[in-house]
Amino acid sequence: MKKIILIAAVLGLAAALSAKAADAKENYDNLCAKCHGAEGKGDTKMGAKLGCKDFTDAKVQADIKDDAAAKAIKEGLKSSEDKTLMKPFDTLSDDEIKALVAYVRGLKK
User: Fold this and answer.
1) Pair 12, 6: CB distance under 8 Å
2) What pLDDT does residue 13 have?
3) Please, what's the b/e burial string for 27-56 (b: 16 or more CB within 10 A of its CB; e: otherwise)?
4) I need a labelling partner for 19 at 20 to 30 A (CA). Which of 49, 52, 79, 97 fits?
5) What does pTM read for this prediction?
């Protein structure tokens, strides 16, 4: 009986992690891909206009800190001239933001 409970718990955790990954991809596709591109290269028309970074580049990834990325998602980004570069996604929970940052980290080639 203990083995069955343990197996069920492990499978439940795996399903939850899989769902979280799917949610992060869905959030990226719905909220980020318009500018950052489906693959994270920033190669969209809007991405080029705003100077989006290529998240597939290991050097770019190394320069981005997780807490700064999470803050940018939650609060948005402005240029030095106070122009909005990225609107805030303040409707996302902290867990969704954390999952989105992890998803973006996974775009590195």
Assistant:
1) no
2) 44
3) bbeebbbebbbeebbbebeebeebebbbbb
4) 52
5) 0.76
Q: What are the residue boundaries of the structural domains of the chain, listed by start?
A: 23-105
Longest dimension (CA), the chain: 64
Using CA atoms, how far residue 57 sits from 42, 90, 105, 107, in Å, is 11, 27, 10, 8
The confidence band for 72, taking pLDDT boundaries of 50, 70 and 90, is very high
Phi and psi angles of residue 77, each rounded to the nearest 5 degrees, phi first: -130, 145
Average confidence score pLDDT of the chain: 85
Residue 11 tokens read as 């499978």
Q: Does domain 23-105 have CATH number 1.10.760.10?
A: yes
